[in-house]
What we know:
This protein is α/β, with parallel strands linked by helices. It has 3 domains: 1-45, no CATH class; 52-171, Response regulator (Rossmann fold, 3-Layer(aba) Sandwich); 211-304. It has helices spanning 60-72, 83-93, 109-118, 158-171, 194-221, 227-245, 247-256, 259-262, 264-277, 281-285, 288-304, and strands at residues 2-4, 11-13, 23-27, 34-38, 52-56, 76-80, 97-101, 126-131, 151-154, 184-187, 190-193. Helix 1 runs antiparallel to helix 5, helix 6 runs antiparallel to helix 9 and helix 7 packs across helix 11. Mean pLDDT is 79; it is low at 173-200.
Amino acid sequence: MIVKCPSCAARFRLDREKLAGKRVTMRCARCRSPFKVEFPHSSPILPEKKECVMIAHSDPELCGTIKKIVDAAGYDSILGHNGAAVLTVMDKVRPQVAVVDVALQGLYAFEVVDTLRRRPGLANVKIILLSSVYNKAAYKRLPNSLYGADDYIEKHHIPDDLILKINRLLVGAAPASGPTEDGEVEKSGEKLTQAEGASQSLDFIHSVNEKIQTAEDHEVSADDIPESDRAERLARIIVADISLYHQDRIDEGILEGNWSELLATEIKEARRLFSDRFPSPQIQNSKILEAAFLDLLQKRSQELGV
């Protein structure tokens, strides 16, 4: 039987048969808050219905990595690799949470949010936007808006923050983290010293981030993908990240007709990043990055009714 701490949403697996008919007081190993759990007398146990998380990203390997984290936390998960497929699957399964890449193929973040909020049966899905943060040095700030989504996460924070964010959205509690007061952490029913727990956590985070980085590099560097396709993917990633962190300037620029001036610094940095990765004259002459900017502006203009 799975029970949740009402304060931080930490989950604990208990033996229902041994505790049948008893009322016990527990102390959460994560936040140290006491709470009571009452176990009914033994009766036929029905399968527990798990909350479901949609993982929407164009890269199957990255989706698989996130799926392992989500499944290990006790949730069900479903995958989608482009906007149309994601909406089709969500119409059938109706997940409680959706983790959506801001550069998802076929739909930008603001299109996903707007579509779900208007879609029967999906309006209340909790949405976490997944940012690539391709240029980590440029985005040392929080997004000023999430287009109506509930939260966001940057890829390199997936192993340590994603489950906490999902828990918070589902339970409505701010998850606690870190060691317990007596210097111990609890994992899989075993007590570890604080140092052992920290080491295990750091190893896990490092391992997952390596897989995320490998998947991200594959999207724009793999030899088995045509160069033009890789260039288009990188352009979409860069433009989508800019749209997340600078929605105010994008919207103002569209409404006032001066977006190129308001985003001059971001456009210059985007060109540098794109040229460093794809310097060939053939790609540069194709104006792939410019086309990605225009596609974003056109779709956002439609959302704004301009």
